Amino acid sequence: EVQLQAYGGGLVQPGGSLRLSCVASGFTLSRYGMRWVRQAPGKAIEWLSGISAGGSTLSFAESAAGRFTISRDNAKNTLFLQMNSLKPEDTAVHYCEKGSGTSYRTTLDYRGKGTLVTVSS
Q: Which residues does 44 contact at the CB level (< 8 Å), separation at least 6?
């Protein structure tokens, strides 16, 4: 059974940092592109960042570029999102997603349980 569990959310002040982790199980992480997305209250799901199966190709949404970094440790079945210079508008539930192939651009195969990030003073 495919499972993805995101961790690391919490309350942080504007300008602060958080590192999210997503632990994968039930499949071989190294074979799939992965993504981070988020959903703010009352808003649609927003794509943030993607990474190819081997980690060589990265992509970021405009809202994340320059502030967020995506990485993966396939040996530990874990995906990461380092978020710096956080803003109140980053407040959202953050989710990791598994693609259906090696590119992060492939169709969504599974979205895990999210972790809430709240940016507030």
A: none
- At a CB cut-off of 8 Å and minimum separation 6, what does 18 contact? 8, 9, 10, 12, 83, 86, 117
Distance between CA atoms of residues 90 and 112, nearest Å: 19
Q: Which residue has the tokens 């003073």?
A: 121
pLDDT tens over the chain, length 121 residues: 999 999 999 999 999 999 999 999 999 999 999 999 999 999 999 999 999 999 999 999 999 999 999 999 999 999 999 999 999 999 999 999 999 999 999 888 899 999 999 999 9
Contact criterion met (CB below 8 Å) for 52 and 59? no
Cα(first)–Cα(last) distance of the chain, in Å?
A: 40
